[in-house]
Amino acid sequence: MTLLREALATAWASRVSSLLTISVVAAMCCACLLTVGRSAAAAGEIAARMEQAGARRLSVVDTAAAGFINPRTLSMIQGLSTVETANALGSPVDVVNGAVGAGGPRIPAWPILGEVASTITLVRGRIPQPGEAMISTTIQQTLGLTEPVGFLSTPDGTVQYPVVGSFSARAPFEDLGAGALIAAPGGAVGRELRVVIDDITSATPTVAAILTTLSPPDPQAVSVESPTAIADTARDLNAQMAGYGRSLLLMILSVGGFFVASVTLADVLIRRRDLGRRRTLGITRSDLATLVTTRTLTVAVLGAGLGCAVGWAVNRYTGYLTPIPFTASVGILAALVAGLAAIPPAWYAARLDPVRVMRTP
Questions:
Q1: Would residue 206 count as lying in a domain?
Q2: How far apart are CA 37 and CA 221, in angstroms?
Q3: Are 352 and 272 in contact (CB under 8 A)?
Q4: Rounded to whole angstroms, how far apart are CA atoms 177 and 288?
Q5: 25, 76, 133, 282: least buried by Cβ within 10 Å?
Q6: Full domain range(s) for residue 167
């Protein structure tokens, strides 16, 4: 505690060197946050986008109508640990407002297998039973309906589907908002399997597990739209950005540490008579070295706090919100580098001969 009080007192007495140290450390932190910090913010934004449902969507289409997308395989896929949501759609059919007839506007209607509620958000009415339909809120006015009631029919009027509710499509199934959904009867087969995986990094094993479960008789009759390429690209991009950030951070800290060491050494040379007087008064070499290092470290902490605050504020104002933990880590690293850079000048100060320093020329 005595050394800390003395370090603060000497820091106040050497205002010029203290201000220079604060400026250098603050510049280090600002430079890190305005370069590496922005890279970290961009990497975090990329990771967040990769976790959106649209980036985690996996689609398998049975182009040959082989029937391997069915309630049994759908149930098995829904049970996979890496699957967040899974549903199957049949081939869409054109339907019209049954009360208007064939002259009314036509919309697509998809038969859907599995739990309808996992794909849409119910707005009015109820979830349809097999053979019933629900319409999108965005298409309701197109059909001339004020409420989601009535019935849909094929243009020739041979097949009818009672309307029991309206819905809004959830991401990443927004395309379903352009029409209606029909709850498929039991035993129906689907044409397209739509899966949302829980994490973009599990795309490759999930694709393999799904294809193994479906076991299509002809691999050429299967069309797979997978986020594996996106996952690989995002992983490579993040690795490149991380490597660039580490190199730049190391360079900035090294240059800043060199300047801190230079300022500390200059201060030691200017104040060598004061340091020599302390040695003649009985301070040990280790305590003197600790005093010089602690003085530099205390002002470096002030500079780190100032630089991190300014850098974080500038990034936020310009749209690059740097994570608080990263900002704090930069400040801690800068302060530690400054403390380590002060050790060689402090060791030099402790090795000075007090008799020679105090001798009057």
A1: no
A2: 47
A3: yes
A4: 75
A5: 282
A6: 101-110+118-186
Q: What is the number of alpha carbons within 13 Å of residue 227 lying toward its C-beta?
A: 25
Contact 60, 224 (CB under 8 A): yes
* pLDDT, tens only, 282-341: 677 777 778 888 888 889 999 999 999 999 998 888 878 888 888 899 999 999 999 899
Does residue 125 carry a pLDDT above 80? yes
Higher-confidence residue of 24 and 323: namely 24
**Total domain count for the chain?**
2
Q: Which of 297, 295, 287, 299 is nearest to 350 (CA)?
A: 287
Going by C-alpha positions, the residue among 246, 218, 189 that lies closest to residue 70 is 189
> Which has the closest alpha carbon to 143: 92, 182, 106?
106
- 59, 224 Cβ separation under 8 angstroms: yes
- Contacts of residue 201, Cβ cutoff 8 Å, sequence gap at least 6: 231, 235
- Residue 85 to residue 265: CA distance in whole angstroms: 64
